[in-house]
Amino acid sequence: MSILSLQVAFITGRSMPGNLALSPEQQAFLERVTPPGALPVYANFPWESGQAGWQPTGLLRASLNNAREYLNARKPEFTRRYQPVAQALLESAEHTVLLAGSCGLALFNQLALPPPFLDRVSVFAWGPVAHQRPGCRHLLVQGSQDLISRLWLRDVDACIRSGHMGYLSHPELVPLCRNFIAPLICQE
What we know:
Layout (H helix, E strand, L loop, with lengths): L1 E2 L2 E7 L11 H10 L5 E2 L18 H15 L2 H16 L3 E7 L2 H7 L4 H4 L2 E6 L10 E7 L3 H6 L5 E3 L12 H9 L3 E2 L2
Parallel strand pairs: 2-3, 2-4, 4-5, 5-6, 6-7
Antiparallel strand pairs: 1-8
């Protein structure tokens, strides 16, 4: 069995602006879903390394920061600033799987990637907070108790029994993600 040059990275709202470190829960999820031979990216969007370690953030502050990021992503400056960053990430592998939690799907959509880049990316999104599906291969997972995500997007591909904050620890999410990634693994 061989694998494409494949990388797996997170794109979520940042609970603490300026801190791109993954939480312990995000790191554990990344390690569980990244196939052998693929490259896990241990930084959140916009994927810059060398950042300080992860720091817990209170729910209210994290929610406000994520809401601010969601609103700022709707401005043209967001696309101008982060589209080249995303293109550079996608060019560093044959294919990239983006793990998009909550407003991560909206951030991805606002990158407005041209078609050649959309062919090189797959998006696995849980609790999607976005107005539309992405223009690339994707799987959208929503919790039956996730009222936040359901306000934005009702047309999803899979449902699990989760609220907005419980996805990464939900036992069904890892197998859903692995099955989504599996077609990218080539059989010899």
